[in-house]
Amino acid sequence: MASISSNYLETGAGRAAGRVWSNLAGRPAFRRGRLPTISLMHAPTIAPGVPSDYYERIADVDARHWWYRGMLAIECAVLGERLSRPAQRLLDVGCGTGGFLRWAVESGRFASIAGADLGSDAIDFARRRVPEADLRVAPMRELPFADASFDLVVSHDVLQHVPEPEVDESLRELRRVLAPGGAVLLRTNGSRRLRVERDDWRAYSRDALAETLERAGLVCERVTYANLVLSLLAAARGRSPRAPSESSSGVPTADGRLKSAVGARLLAAEARWLSRAGRTVPFGHNLLALAVPGPG
Length: 296
Ligand SMILES: C[S@@+](CC[C@H](N)C(=O)[O-])C[C@H]1O[C@@H](n2cnc3c(N)ncnc32)[C@H](O)[C@@H]1O
Description:
With 296 residues, this protein is an alpha/beta fold.
């Protein structure tokens, strides 16, 4: 399987909606010299071309599909002892329909749980699934949370969609809300070389992701590819992650028993490998970075 992607932000309309949503989230639109934008009662949540049941599709698979479960195990492995630290405050940026946040609540590991997503439909879903969480409609570049208010910030398959001109300020925003001693765990698309298909869609190489995070004042503790075997098989067949299109939302659909079982075992093996500090996986269509605040 290629990576999970989304395509609700593909158009100028989607980006404009993002600016409106940031207003709805209660942040002044003219912050940092921006011109005020107009608030709408009903902002569009999904750009044209995306199935209207997009978030339903994600919600349907994110708790039980082998890929999501395998990625969760890999993330826990990369986080290591950080997951056991007491009284941590968690933020999931681009939380979608709240699958990770539901797991976080049930794990009982966190003192408080919050999420933000550009899509108000996504947040509506997440509010139903995770009523315990503080959930906001907001873009990554303007998070409605105080400085240094989280110990762990995660973001899964969101960075690749952030429009190129907003990438640095969006990542600085993750850095801003991170408490001293905290960490960011970011998952995005992986590629051997940085591949920019559109202004709002790219696949990162390990080096490009590390450089991008470091520009935003974050220091990478570990950057690793993931999903090695299936990505190699896909690459051998000429397949790699692609920008979403009208005909392909990128949300995984149910696989047969064999593929699910094999996929689950392969990802579980990677999680075991990555559970040792410092280990990495050399290739994959998914890429994870664990980063901490740099000096200053
Ligand atoms: C591929 S989905 C992943 C959702 C969720 N993180 C998961 O793993 O299931 C990407 C999510 O990022 C959100 N998103 C995209 N660009 C964003 C941005 N600039 N700021 C905040 N959320 C964004 C989308 O609305 C969508 O819910």
